[in-house]
């Protein structure tokens, strides 16, 4: 069986939105006969959350954690000062940057332990540290690297409150280096692929693909829907601060 090494900061049974996409795709890879290994974060950071028992746990799941968790906890003057500086320094990369080293070490350890040969590395972002770790692992193992985007990294004009123009400049150049190392890119909507190709026109468009969220190759036939009665819509995700719900409500009204 050809090994697939997935680097994902979140994974089942974490309730985070980032855990869902590859919890299901890992199961699909296993169904197709691949030897699936997932490198993900330790569960202790969300142990107080309610876990999502509906998410599949496919393949071998290997967990690791960074030695120092950012941002620093505590309300002391020193912690606030350090976090203030690091918030600006790490803006192009994200708070999870230190996890990249732990993920890289764990992935190489797993490759040695299981004697994995001739595989492929898939790094899913965000957290962008997964891309950093995945690129290093693919280079050291000599395997192709696939970048999976659940959200854009720098291929989006983020508002200034989230990322300054300077941080965006650095982010685009950092991301560009990993794109050049990748064998293919996967994005979750056609619009996202189009935006990616505007920001990174030199990346081979033939190697940019779309796999939507919610993909399920073994899904059954859709249930019959009656035209009578109310329509119930369930959103399995998160509502982030700084975002507007108006477009969602307008779309629901049109529906």
Summarize the structure.
The chain is α/β, with parallel strands linked by helices and 255 residues long.
Question: Can you offer a commentary on this structure?
Answer:
This protein has 255 residues and is α/β, with parallel strands linked by helices. It has helices at 17-31, 77-89, 99-113, 129-141, 165-181, 190-199, 246-254, and strands at 3-7, 35-41, 60-64, 120-125, 145-149, 184-187, 208-210. It contains seven helices and seven strands. The model has no long low-confidence stretch (mean pLDDT 90). It is 36% helix and 14% strand. The longest helix is centred in the last third of the chain and has 17 residues, at 165-181. A seven-stranded parallel β-sheet has the order 3-2-1-4-5-6-7, sandwiched between helices.
What class do helices, strands and sheet pairing give? alpha/beta
**What is the mean pLDDT?**
90
Sheet with the most strands?
7 strands, parallel
What's the count of strands? 7
Q: N- to C-terminal separation?
A: 45 Å
- Provide the spatial order of strands within the biggest beta sheet: 3-2-1-4-5-6-7
The global form is globular
Number of helices: 7
Order of helices and strands: EHEEHHEHEHEHEH
Into which percent range does the helicity of residues fall? 25-40%
Q: Describe the oligomeric state of these chains in a short phrase.
A: single chain
Can you tell me the residue ranges where pLDDT is under 50 for at least 5 consecutive residues? none
| Relative strand content | 5-15%
Rg, Cα atoms, Å: 19 Å
């Amino acid at each position: 069986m050809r090994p697939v090494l997935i680097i994902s900061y979140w994974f089942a049974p974490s309730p985070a939105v980032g855990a869902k996409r590859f919890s299901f795709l890992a199961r699909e890879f296993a169904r197709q006969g691949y030897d699936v290994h997932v490198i993900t974060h330790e569960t202790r950071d969300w142990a107080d959350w309610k876990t999502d028992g509906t998410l599949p746990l496919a393949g071998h799941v290997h967990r690791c954690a960074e030695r120092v968790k950012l941002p620093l906890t505590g309300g002391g003057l020193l912690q606030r000062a350090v976090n203030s500086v690091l918030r600006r320094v790490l803006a192009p990369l994200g708070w999870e940057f230190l996890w990249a080293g732990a993920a890289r070490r764990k992935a190489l350890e797993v490759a040695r332990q299981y004697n994995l040969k001739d595989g492929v590395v898939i790094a899913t972002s965000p957290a962008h540290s997964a891309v950093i770790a995945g690129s290093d692992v693919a280079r050291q193992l000599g395997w192709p690297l696939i970048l999976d985007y659940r959200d854009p990294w720098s291929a989006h004009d983020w508002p200034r409150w989230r990322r300054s123009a300077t941080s965006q400049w650095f982010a685009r150049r950092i991301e560009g280096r990993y794109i050049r190392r990748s064998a293919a890119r996967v994005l979750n909507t056609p619009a996202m692929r189009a935006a990616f190709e505007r920001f990174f026109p030199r990346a081979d468009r033939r190697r940019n693909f779309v796999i939507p969220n919610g993909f399920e190759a073994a899904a059954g036939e859709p249930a019959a829907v009656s035209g009578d009665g109310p329509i119930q819509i369930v959103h399995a995700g998160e509502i982030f601060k700084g975002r507007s719900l108006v477009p969602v409500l307008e779309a629901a009204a049109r529906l």
